Amino acid sequence: MMTTNEGSIENGGTSVLKWLRRMKSHKFTLALTCINLAVAAIVLSRSVWDKPIMADSQQTPKVIRAQAIELVSDGGQVRSRLNVEPSGEVVFRLLDKNGTIRVKLGASEDGSGLLLLDEATEPAVHMIARRSGTAEKPTTTGITLKSGDGQQRVIKP
What we know:
The protein has 157 residues and is of the alpha+beta class. Helices cover 24% and strands 34% of the residues.
């Protein structure tokens, strides 16, 4: 005669049915727990893969090659641009939040230049480094400072 804590088999088998129901309940709970663990593992793995990977010295490329590089704001607006013009001149521009160029730095075989624009987008500081002028670019090395009221000071070597 087999007995359990809840009674004997001989007493109508009700204890065995309760025991079987409890076992089914445990299997269901175990299966549900396994499914929950699997879902949690998938969610955690996706959050790990979606994070940006920090570059270390072994993953950092030695050279980046591009025809242009743009830095953009969170909203996708271009705030700076480094590119090679069709003339061969390399130009670096810094733009304000409205997309207006505020700083321009350029270099070519003819020399280099730096232009700083004021709030009215007028040249306030213009520096040019060129040993000899050409018909197209007559200005040689110098610094031109211009105030808002139109006063200008040119410094030449």
